[in-house]
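Hmm, how's this folded?
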Amino acid sequence: MMNVIAAALLAAACAASPFEDRLPSVVARMAGTEPAWVVDSGGRWQGPGQLVKTLWVFSRKATGSLRVTGRQLDGAGTLRFQDGGIEGHPADALEIADPWKRSVMPGGASAAILRAYSFIPNYVIYPSPGCWEFTVQLGAATTRIVLEMR
C-alpha cells in the first residue's frame, strides 16, 4: 500500500514544462526553452511499444549536431526514439548530425519562420505512463523538457 501512495505522490509532483503557443499559425503548443521545443503529443499514454508522433522545433540560432535522450523521473524507464518513419528502428537516442538539413515545412510556415526554426518529426516510445524528462543537446546548448504521460 505504501508503494502505491508513494507512486501517486511522485506522479502528482511531476513538474512538467509549461507549454506556449510560440508559433500558433504553424504548429500546436510546445514545451521547452531556447533553442529546443517539443510539440505536445497530447499527454496520453498509448501503451507499451506504441509510436507517438512527435515534432521537435529548433531555433536556427543554435549550431551543431543534435542528440535527444529521455528518462523517467518517477521510475526507472528510459525513452526510445524511432527516426525514419514507421519502418525505422528504435534507438536509445535521437541523433542527427545536421538537423538544419532535415527540416520539414509545416503548413502555414512563412519564409521568415522557416529561416528562424527547423522542424524535425520523429516517434517517441514511452514504455509506461509517468513523468518523462528529455535532455536535448543541440551543439553546445542543453535543454531539459519534462512531459507527463497519463
